[in-house]
């Protein structure tokens, strides 16, 4: 990408990159990737490479099945999310297409929450 002078890098962090979290290793790794995203955006933005990230919230995936099955935690997540539900994998597709498209050419180092509004509460 640097040799061609253009490209798009989209990292996937998590809303935990904006918050603390109970899983120290997971949350720490997401904070690290958010920092790497910003660092590379600074280093490579002037060379035509956009580096941004998506920060998914609570998505209904195999990884979150135990939490979805925990009625108390499931209820808490849904009640706290203004979107009033768990995210579906398709919910992140539009944001990814946007960051990969020319519409995001002036974005560098953005960490875009795709969280149904979780972070606003």
What features would you describe in this structure?
By secondary structure, this protein is α/β, with parallel strands linked by helices. It has a single domain (7-115), classed as NAD(P)-binding Rossmann-like Domain (Rossmann fold, 3-Layer(aba) Sandwich). Helices cover 36% and strands 15% of the residues. The protein is built from 4 helices and 3 strands; from the N terminus they run E-H-E-H-H-H-E. Strands 1-2-3 form a 3-stranded parallel beta sheet, sandwiched between helices. The chain is elongated, with a radius of gyration of 16 Å. The mean pLDDT is 97.
Task: Summarize the model shown.
The protein is α/β, with parallel strands linked by helices and 121 residues long. The chain has helices at residues 24-44, 65-69, 71-80, 93-100; strands at residues 7-12, 49-56, 111-114.
Question: Keyphrases for this structure?
Answer:
121 residues; alpha/beta; Rossmann fold; 3-stranded parallel β-sheet; 3 strands
Q: How are the strands of the biggest sheet laid out side by side?
A: 1-2-3
Assigned CATH architecture: 3-Layer(aba) Sandwich
Rg, nearest Å: 16 Å
Count of discrete domains:
1
| Overall geometry | elongated
> In terms of quaternary structure, what is this?
single chain
Percent of residues in helices comes to: 25-40%
Main sheet summary = 3 strands, parallel
Strand content: 5-15%
Distance linking N and C termini: 38 Å
* CATH domain class name: Alpha Beta
Note the topology.
Layout: E1 7-12, H1 24-44, E2 49-56, H2 65-69, H3 71-80, H4 93-100, E3 111-114
Parallel strand pairs: 1-2, 2-3
């Amino acid at each position: 990408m640097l040799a061609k002078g253009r490209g798009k890098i989209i990292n996937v962090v998590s809303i935990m990159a904006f918050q603390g979290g109970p899983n120290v290793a997971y949350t720490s790794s997401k904070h690290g990737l958010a920092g790497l995203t910003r660092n590379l955006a600074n280093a490579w933005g002037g060379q035509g490479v956009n580096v941004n990230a998506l920060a998914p919230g609570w998505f209904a995936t195999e990884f979150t099945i135990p939490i979805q099955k925990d009625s108390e935690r499931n209820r808490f997540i849904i009640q706290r999310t203004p979107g009033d539900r768990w995210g579906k994998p398709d919910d992140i597709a539009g944001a990814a297409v946007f960051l990969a498209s020319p519409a995001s050419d002036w974005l560098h180092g953005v960490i875009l929450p795709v969280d149904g509004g979780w972070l606003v509460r």
